[in-house]
Amino acid sequence: MDEHQLLGVGLGTVIGMVLALTGAGGGILAVPLLVFGLGLSIVEAAPVGLLAVGLAAGIGAVLGLRQGIVRYRAAGYIASIGVLMAPLGLWLAHRLPNTPLALVFSVVLLYACGRMFIRASRE
């Protein structure tokens, strides 16, 4: 196993553990770790992260279904809108330079972190 593969396994382990502990969106972790850990561009990292996180999310969804804690309506809305908007996002990602994509992703990440911090501090 070469250095890149070993680093990929390590990053996957970290992402999987954080996903399992927090339920946070794995892409929020996967994309920055793939960009800074493996040197991928955001356009390259996004589909890799989506595939890896999608497989892990599928397992989590099955477990949630078994426990009866899935909100079907919310999941349906999110999935439907995501499927419809994914081609537009992919089209834009291939036409925008990496720097603006990184800035937009950073703003979204900071917003999500802030919301999670505020919610956690209220509990």
From TrEMBL:
**Where is this protein primarily located?**
membrane
Q: Please report the record's description of how this protein sits within the membrane.
A: Multi-pass membrane protein
Q: Which UniProt keywords apply?
A: Cell membrane, Membrane, Transmembrane, Transmembrane helix
Q: What is stated as this protein's family in its record?
A: Belongs to the 4-toluene sulfonate uptake permease (TSUP) (TC 2.A.102) family.
Its recorded name reads Probable membrane transporter protein
Q: Which residues cross the membrane?
A: 7-40, 46-65, 74-93, 99-118
The organism of origin for this protein: Pseudomonas syringae pv. japonica str. M301072
One GO CC annotation: plasma membrane
InterPro entries per UniProt = TM_pro_TauE-like (IPR002781), TSUP/Inactive_protease-like (IPR051598)
Q: Which PANTHER family did the record assign? A: MEMBRANE TRANSPORTER PROTEIN MJ0441-RELATED, MEMBRANE TRANSPORTER PROTEIN YJNA-RELATED
Q: Where does the protein end up?
A: Cell membrane; Membrane
